[in-house]
Amino acid sequence: xxxxxxxxxxxxxxxxxxxxxxxxxxxxxxxxxxxxxxxxxxxxxxxxxxxxxxxxxxxxxxxxxxxxxxxxxxxxxxxxxxxxxxxxxxxxxxxxxxxxxxxxxxxxxxxxxxxxxxxxxxxxxxxxxxxxxxxxxxxxxxxxxxxxxxxxxxxxxxxxxxxxxxxxxxxxxxxxxxxxxxxxxxxxxxxxxxxxxxxxxxxxxxxxxxxxxxxxxxxxxxxxxxxxxxxxxxxxxxxxxxxxxxxxxxxxxxxxxxxxxxxxxxxxxxxxxxxxxxxxxxxxxxxxxxxxxxxxxxxxxxxxxxxxxxxxxxxxxxxxxxxxxxxxxxxxxxxxxxxxxxxxxxxxxxxxxxxxxxxxxxxxxxxxxxxxxxxxxxxxxxxxxxxxxx
Length: 390
What we know:
It is a single-pass type II membrane protein. The chain crosses the membrane at residues 20-41. The chain is of the alpha/beta class. It has twelve helices and eleven strands. It has helices at residues 2-10, 12-61, 83-87, 98-105, 135-142, 185-198, 219-227, 272-280, 283-291, 298-310, 342-349, 377-388; strands at residues 70-72, 77-79, 121-127, 149-154, 203-210, 214-215, 269-271, 321-322, 355-357, 360-362, 368-369. The strands form four sheets. The chain has a four-stranded mixed sheet.
């Protein structure tokens, strides 16, 4: 061992050569290992990139009927925050809670001008427990006027409307919740319909209808009447009896006082501005939820009282939906096939009454009517062209 050290000391050049050779061997081994590892990593991430590209390609080319997205034609990319889908959602399906939905719908643009060519539309909002037995009559009413209306349907959760793909009612159901007659859940459904309709910035007027309602004038007449009106149509009147003031709860004082209490029909028509107030308002909705309990019915008192207190000058205090309460009781008269005659329909349209429209008096006070049974469909279709002019 000592001999070896002596040899190295006598020949230092040999020692340096051995050190250099050792370094080169280690370097080469390291390079080989690095290249092998790099190739493995490239193969792994290359395959992942191919999979990711395939998924993106598949997503971009499959139909987006359940997404509020737009395919950009130039690049085939999917734009899910495009102006088009923001202004007018293509699909009514969403996972928003009511609070999230109302918050979203309550947003009001501050710029007065629109960044698109806006054609004002009427939102027809149907509150129904299930099928729409008078659907063919409504389809006839809407035919040829696609640019001027939107449809929204609130049914019981899980129910699917059975309509053709060419029907204006196709895929127009909104996410719904259970509804019980005479409770605040009816107001919840009304607000839910309004909020979904407000997401379309072209909707200017909002009319609430049921499965038993019919239009008694043609679409151009209804559209011109509502779009041109300076007022909304919420029936609101003071009823001093047991079915009016008798339903007032002292627990509402002092926020709502007895002299402010009003009653009216559930079937309303609202401007966009008043619709935003309804989906944004929480104080008086909460009061009604707590204290307007059977035999107080929130759907008959909440909107009439609220508008009387805060927005009376924007309201006509009448409804545009005719109904027959002459029989008395908690529900109006229902008309079946045997009741439908040409004279009967004409009597609803021209009932001799006059009402105020803007600053003038008019004989057209009602645009819709209820309640009509499924058996009324045949006769109504028979008279639609000759009497109702559609």
